[in-house]
Amino acid sequence: MFEPVTTPPNASITPRAPWPALTRAMSYRGPERRSGAALMARLMALALDEIDYGMLMIGEDGHVMHVNHAARMELEGQHPLMLDGRVLRARDLRDQTALVDALQGASRRGLRRLLSLGDGEHRAGVSVVPLPLLPGEASSAATLLVLGKSQVCGALSVQGFARAHKLSPGEEQVLIALCDGASPSDIAQANGVAISTVRTQIANIRAKTGSDSIRSLIHQVAVLPPLVGTLRQPSGDHRSAFGGMGTLFGVLAGVHN
Fold it and tell me: With 50 as the cut, is the pLDDT of residue 14 above it?
């Protein structure tokens, strides 16, 4: 459990109003402000859909406010968590207890948690992050859940990397297999070719990418920005899966009423 950062007892602090410019901006309630919040909500929803990490926003009432594209794909599969209408639930009772405890700790006490849910090949990590409206607040207006990656190297990131370095289709397939943890002998056996052929392809990949080892090659791919494909399942209104992103910005707009 990550405890909230606290100020040391002997630290010297000069009290002042937090974010004065933001405070002044929040006090305005005219039509430009409302249209600006709607635009920001749409842009935020679009931005979250471009991130290849599953992300969900949970409101104070426990209902899901927003689900990005990656999270929808994960939760429709074999992920330990699932959506039941506007409620996020765990498939296993033990995980459900841990999930509820983490969400309550985030919303009521501002505690961060890293959960490990599920079993075997379906085991997944979930980060629970409280989102307070102002610095130092113990309670949160919303809680962000970030789903762990199921692959070290995303397929689209590998493909983009391969094309950027002008790898051949065969070399790209070898790179994908290496990122999935396969050994050169495994790759040769799976493709029905000699081990010498695979080693030649690996040498070509290393030369084109400037990698001095397979380990450094995989590291190059693993740290790439996660890419999301442009061909996706229809997700409806980009403003939010449940119309909640606009609600969140409405909460932000009303902080200083």
Answer: no
